[in-house]
Amino acid sequence: MLQFSVYDYITKAALNQYGVTQEQRSFLGHSGSLTFCIETQEEKFLLRIHQAISRHQDDVWHRPEVIESELLWLAALHRDTVVVVQEPIKNLQNRWVTQVVVDESKEVFYCSLLRWIDGNVLNTERTPQQAYQLGSLLAQLHQHSNQWQLPQNFVRPIYDKNRFQAALLALHPAVSQKLISAEDYSVLEAGVCRVQDMIGTLGQTQNNWGVIHADLHDGNYLFHNEELRPIDFARCGFGYYLYDVASSLQYLHPAVRSSFFEGYQVSRELPENYVQITEGFFIMALIDVLSFHVNNPEEHEGLSGTVKDVAKKHIPLYLQGRSFLFDKY
User: Fold this and answer.
1) Per-residue pLDDT at 262
2) pTM of the model
3) Interior CA angle at 131 toward 259 and 44, to 5°?
4) Which domain of life is it from (predicted)?
């Protein structure tokens, strides 16, 4: 990781290209990108330096055309819907993505700036009403995606069979590291094989496939006066809408998942066999998250425990054709 003096330089150089003079800067975190809260005399912004915490992570997320496409969807959501999102800002060159070159190393960094939105992340279990709101929110995002005319050169990663297979393979080194047992990995393989077969029957239609958030977990939406506001669209891409649903359901207690579906169906219809499809994507979403964390030593303990749970609680039931969505956490 670079020294913070270098990030000081990048921050100032980037903000100069927006004509923004910072009064105060607060470090927020570093995962897929480095994030700062920027305060001026008039307002607050979110500044992102698009560099992953792990060099092992796929750098596709940090290509300028991919970052720009995320910002185009955010701008469209801000313009077209009542959903409150972080509005992206163009720089003085009328570009969504700002390039900064560090003089000494000649390394290139890409940055983006978004308007700040108020709200809080709740660290408590979601109530049925909050789960209902989350379902309604995700349905609104999908409804917009379904109707939105994609801009030219819109480029985002694809959550398809190839990506899921790559996520499974990314976990394999954890077997030799003794983080995952060979037996549990075999169970994961069997589950993925069954899910791949299921995906093969779905096809890609306007109603089941489009641009999805792909990471709407409990830390990626804010509560503001009982209104839910989605944030962090950095993992958005093309995928099945029910994969997006499953990705969010991972973080909800099974007792409130039915409320999520009730909220979702206010805006969008679900297919007749939506529970079965969602359970397959639930397994894939878990594996995708695990593959994201496998190169972070701080996540290894949690990763090992999660794999054991998935291999013992979820996949065996799924392989037997028995439902787990409303019973297993």
Assistant:
1) 98
2) 0.94
3) 155
4) Bacteria
